[in-house]
Write a structure and sequence with these properties.
GO terms for molecular function: GDP-mannose 4,6-dehydratase activity. Its cofactor is NADP(+). By secondary structure, this protein is an alpha/beta fold. It has helices spanning 13-24, 42-46, 65-75, 89-94, 96-117, 151-170, 192-204, 225-237, 254-263, 310-316, 324-341, and strands at 4-8, 28-33, 55-59, 79-82, 122-128, 174-179, 182-183, 211-213, 219-220, 223-224, 243-246, 252-253, 270-272, 279-281, 288-292. The strands form four sheets. Strands 3-2-1-4-5-6-11 form a seven-stranded parallel sheet, with helices on both faces. It has a four-stranded mixed sheet with strand order 8-15-14-13. A two-stranded parallel sheet has the order 7-10. Bound molecules: NADPH dihydro-nicotinamide-adenine-dinucleotide phosphate and guanosine-5'-diphosphate-rhamnose (GDR). Guanosine-5'-diphosphate-rhamnose (GDR) binds at residues 87, 89-90, 128-130, 180-181, 190-192, 195, 213-215, 218, 220, 254, 296, 298, 301-302.
Amino acid sequence: MSKIALITGISGQDGAYLSEQLLEKGYTVYGTYRRTSSVNFWRIEELGLLDHPNLHLVEFDLTDMGSGIRLLDSSGATEVYNLAAQSFVGVSFDQPLTTGHITGLGAAHMLESIRTVNPAIRFYQASTSEMFGKVQAIPQTEDTPFYPRSPYGVAKLYAHWMTVNFRESFGIFGASGILFNHESPLRGREFVTRKITDTVAKIHVGKADVLELGNLDAKRDWGFARDYTEGMYRILQHDEPDTFVLATNRTETVRDFVSMAFRGIDIDIEWSGTAEDEIGVDPKSGRTLVRINPKFYRPAEVELLIGDASKAKRLLGWEATTSLEELCRLMVEADLRRNINGTSF
Ligand code: NDP
Ligand code: GDR
């Protein structure tokens, strides 16, 4: 009999890759999506999974605990990957309560549902490097103190500690992956890497003139999402429920990522100006291709993230295998293809 997994948030980036990997491993997968006025399955469609016989798409909202209980009961899942969240940091400042309900309390709903239906179900919580926020140590490990800097980070910290608490109080197999930023061609376009690669592709084909960004100095530890979803699986197969950092241990600025992406279309951006009037220019044509728009600044910023995933390497045999250059190339190529074919999401 195949193992049964439930993935909340299958319409998101990680849900798509994780479902692909679990199906390849022979799992039956129940993937949850929200009721919306138009369907949002482009990621699983792009991976060719939409008609997979072992993939069951089920309507579900994390804020409705009763439906979580019924879903656990009817699916017979023995592993739950809780990936659903209001995951955009910027929006969490405008909608802190919605973010708290979904991203924070939503995880508690799943934990309570597991406790009610079958406490033997293994639970993975999608925790985040945003919990480190104003960082207290470099690099960040499982032992680094938390200091979240956004309503999203605060909500995730609640969900993280509820997972640890249910592990310690009720013996539930609650595992938490503190994942640093991970990107891919399936990344949502509001996140900075995909915004950059999509706009670079649009500039290349003449559909956009300029890339407008906020804080170019923010530093992130960016990896490839497919490596990280494999890490989630390994975290849930470990003998003991535990907390693991997944990261690349390399950090770069947003500015560096912009330069890297433009190199993908043979432009070597030259930077000039300071802070809020900085611009990026194509030295060959003299065109300004990058400029600052203050509307993309955040009320409080996470300036620097760099993770140390040695524990995951030691206990799970996991490490990030895709370089940032390779990741950026994959993303620019995918966006060029989509913009040329007119299939851009
Ligand atoms: P996405 O934003 O791409 O996906 C989030 C998913 O959650 C979507 O399927 C979304 O559905 C769903 N969702 C949102 N609200 C609800 C709700 N009320 N009920 C049910 N489902 C809901 O995120 P990622 O795939 O990038 O990330 C997966 C998880 O990992 C998230 O929890 C994120 O916070 C966390 N994380 C991500 C990192 C990253 O770098 N990608 C790093 C660390 C943690 P819909 O499509 O309808 O919006
Ligand atoms: P982040 O990702 O906040 O780290 O959260 P995002 O890509 O949104 O921002 C990264 C950094 O880039 C700066 N930035 C901009 N960001 C966006 N989105 N748009 C811009 O125009 C822009 N200009 C500069 C930001 O200020 C920030 O410093 C992601 C999400 O996936 C979370 O769910 C996850 O938990 C963390 O990564 C780890």
